[in-house]
Amino acid sequence: MSTSVVNFAALVAEVLDVDPAEITENADQDALPGWTSMRHIQLVVTLEEAYRVYFDYAEIRDARTIAGLRKVLRTKGIEV
C-alpha cells in the first residue's frame, strides 16, 4: 500500500470550501453544507487526479462520508 504525500484533509477542505479541521471521519453532506452534489463530483475528480486513480460509478455513489472516500482510496492502494 502506498502512502500519499498529498494532504487528504487539505485537499478535501479546499474543494468543499471548509476549514480542514472540519474534515473528520464521520463528516458527510449533512455536516458539511459545502458538500453539494456538484462539489461531490468535483471532489471525486480532484481525488482521482491527485492520487492517479479512477472511481467507478458505485464508488462515486456510495462514498458519501469522509470515511467512505478514504475506504475507496484504500481499496486502490492509497493510504490517506
Fold and architecture overview:
There is one protein chain. By secondary structure, this protein is mainly alpha-helical. It has one domain: Non-ribosomal Peptide Synthetase Peptidyl Carrier Protein, Chain A (Orthogonal Bundle). Helix content is 50%, strand content 5%. The chain has a two-stranded parallel sheet.
Task: Summarize the model shown.
The chain is mainly α.
Strand content: 5-15%
CATH superfamily: ACP-like
- Give the helix level as a range of percent: 40-55%
Q: Tell me the CATH architecture.
A: Orthogonal Bundle
Class by alpha and beta content: mainly alpha
What characterizes the major β-sheet? 2 strands, parallel
Strand order across the largest sheet: 1-2
Number of domains: 1
Shape: globular
SSE layout:
Layout: E1 2-3, H1 8-16, H2 37-51, H3 57-62, H4 66-75, E2 78-79
Parallel strand pairs: 1-2
Helix pairs in contact: 1-2
What labels describe this entry?
4 helices; Non-ribosomal Peptide Synthetase Peptidyl Carrier Protein, Chain A; 5% strand; 50% helix; 80 residues; 2 strands; mainly alpha; globular; two-stranded parallel ribbon
